[in-house]
Amino acid sequence: MIKKVTTEDEMGRISEIWLESNIETHDFIAADYWKSHLAEVKQLMIEAEIYAVYEEEQPVAFIGLVGNYIAGIFILKDYQKKGYGKKLLKVAQQKYSELHLSVYEKNQNAVAFYKYQNFIIIEQKMDENNEVEYLMVWTK
């Protein structure tokens, strides 16, 4: 089941998923980087629109939207490869006719996923960790 995240308890679990997923997926960036940004991300989540996949009444994956910008799709490792990313992306695609996102070049699974979902790379840049990020866009 997918639903909009609205409660403080849900937000707490969502921030844990964010941290766990980033550390797991972005092993080319020190875990301390993600940990040091957790408080800031929790604040930003308050202003974002967040939709989560629930299993047994617990969030296991989510998408964060700031307008038509996808701040990220995060899925706990044990729940990956179940189509949750595609379902969450579909929520965003139904709301907007154009979507933007940034993804690390080294996160090849995510890059391949977004390309498969008809996103195209429009730019690349270096981030604060000296890692290449792709800026990608999708249009209906």
TrEMBL record:
<keyword id="KW-0012">Acyltransferase</keyword>
<protein>
    <recommendedName>
        <fullName>N-acetyltransferase domain-containing protein</fullName>
    </recommendedName>
</protein>
<keyword id="KW-0808">Transferase</keyword>
<dbReference type="InterPro" id="IPR000182">
    <property type="entry name" value="GNAT_dom"/>
</dbReference>
<feature type="domain" description="N-acetyltransferase">
    <location>
        <begin position="1"/>
        <end position="140"/>
    </location>
</feature>
<dbReference type="InterPro" id="IPR016181">
    <property type="entry name" value="Acyl_CoA_acyltransferase"/>
</dbReference>
<dbReference type="Pfam" id="PF00583">
    <property type="entry name" value="Acetyltransf_1"/>
</dbReference>
<dbReference type="GO" id="GO:0016747">
    <property type="term" value="F:acyltransferase activity, transferring groups other than amino-acyl groups"/>
</dbReference>
